[in-house]
TrEMBL record:
<dbReference type="InterPro" id="IPR036983">
    <property type="entry name" value="AIM24_sf"/>
</dbReference>
<dbReference type="InterPro" id="IPR002838">
    <property type="entry name" value="AIM24"/>
</dbReference>
<dbReference type="InterPro" id="IPR016031">
    <property type="entry name" value="Trp_RNA-bd_attenuator-like_dom"/>
</dbReference>
<dbReference type="Pfam" id="PF01987">
    <property type="entry name" value="AIM24"/>
</dbReference>
<protein>
    <submittedName>
        <fullName>AIM24 family protein</fullName>
    </submittedName>
</protein>
Amino acid sequence: MPFREVSAKMVEAQVAPGQRLFSQRGAMIAYKGEVSFTPNMQSGQGGVMSMIGRRVAGEAAPLMTVEVPLGPGGPGDTPPGQVWFGHGGHHIQVIELSGDTLYVEADRLLAFDGTLEQGTMFMGSQGGVMGMVRGQVTGQGLFTTTLKGTGGVAVMAHGGVIQLPVTGGRPVHVDPQAYVAHHGDVRNKLSTALGWRDMVGRGSGEAFQLELSGEGTVYVQASEEKL
């Protein structure tokens, strides 16, 4: 994995010659070595059609490609580069994927391994109509970004992140505004607990919860504030 948390708000990436990663534009804090930073007009990978799909879905955050060019003598000709990333003073969580898929909003992405397959998912495909309602409740729209494969992802959050395991038969309920990401074989849907108290403005203020069930992990931030 190329990422290492060096503080709650900064992450270090090791970039081997000939390899690449993607990061949010302007997120580089410092670097060592022969590292190049190139604006990625496709906002990730997958070609032009994939780029168009992400932009239509509103999941195309401005990214840059970070890489160390391969020297003429091969991988041993150029030492690996080191890059430190941080953005807006947000807390950073590194998530390692082992062949599964991470579901995360595009604006949460700080940096991710260039080998991961990037895509988008229609929220209605998980949770049906309530999945679509969830997108409106959270302000995240009808689509979310997916990253699939084996590699590291650095995501941003307010106030730190906790990891909650999701196991069979014991779903996890999360405030939609505090949800950051999830991975594994996890289904998510929006559940409601509207009662007469909510109708007259005397409810608890927790009328909507995001219910995650199956097997995997959900990441929750210590705040209801969006990035």
